[in-house]
Please model this.
Amino acid sequence: KTTPNTALIANYEASIKQLETSIKAKEEEKTAKEKEMKDYRAKGLFGCVSSSEDNGDNITLKNLSTPYLVDSPLTINLSLSISAEEMIQAENTDLSTVVGLENYLLNPVIQASANHALFIIDDGLNNDHDNNPATPEQRIAVSFTDIDFVGCNALCATNGGIILNKEALTISKSILSKGQANRGGAIYNEEKATLVLKQTVFRNNQAVDGAAIFSEYNSLSLESSLLSQNKANNNNAVVTIASDISTFLAGNVTPHVENVTISGNEGAAISSYGNLAINNSTIVNNTIGVSLNNNPPAIFNTIIAGNTIADCHAMAAIPVDNKIYFTNNLSVTNKGCPTSSANHGNIFISNTGDEKLIADPVGENQDCPPPPALGLLCPLAENGGLTKTHKPRLLASYTKLADSPIVNKGFYYIFANNGFPCST
Model:
């Protein structure tokens, strides 16, 4: 209009000022809420804090002097990473010399307060291998790092005394102990799930079968870990792979056991009904070493010896082809391991005299004895690294390093079909 409507303009200006005041109030409210959330995240809940203000998928557990007690199984139904806030030096220890999971680091501990498992990893969706075999996109990804788990120390669950996994689970730098179940004393890995374990200790777990791990399919990767003092009933296994699914070989997990020590368990160390490769491992002092249930082996650079009933059990005859199935291993004579493949660098010992496998410990600390004591390996002990190991020994009777049946006997140059090299 030629003449402005002053009343209407005044009303608009008043509305604008009112909106500006409202916006300012909302911004102040937002700032207060952001500070409240930041303070809440910094404080955490029962020692559990989010490691990032803008990401709830990474959870950090504070190192507390007492365990996190869980009074019923917790279901994780989304991708999540849970780790320790920091590593704390245990009292009167020097981390600059030796770092070991069992004696030298104090991880946060999650413990069952009654007879139940700790975690069920399950998003509630059907991971259908038939429609899309072995695709990781079908599974949520959950990881635990520097977290220790203590089970109920009784019958905690039918399957999975500590963890029942139905998704894609990774555990590293952790200890799982005192889990009990009918199958999978510590972990039960369902047929459509994958399980990756690195630098992890399983001890004092018990089950009818799979005292430490029961995996329905061969979707298992076990690396740089220790399994000791676990108990399976009726000579069943500490690690059980119940069946084979070849699609996993083309998927995201290659089933294998590498750089692993399985020592001092009741039952078979490993029982597999499907494809499984074992490399650079030490499988000693168990009731049975490796049982392959009439499948051919894929075992390389490994000590399978000193197991009570048999070192190798129920292995199928090695096929007549140009592939290598059992190479650069050490076993005890007449304990079931393939002798027809002895030309592939395998060594068989008597477990007596200079070929005695484990040296007798000495002193109140059960230390490894000095020469001239016999024994190719020291008793299980801290030798550097995160898990206990059997340190190799050189005997006083040796005149050169090559006299040892275990030192420098692994395979480092690979020809076609010759199996696996020693790991770095």
The radius of gyration is 28 Å. Residues 138 and 217 are 16 Å apart (CA to CA). The first strand starts at residue 48 and ends at 52. Residues 6-43 form the longest helix (38 residues).
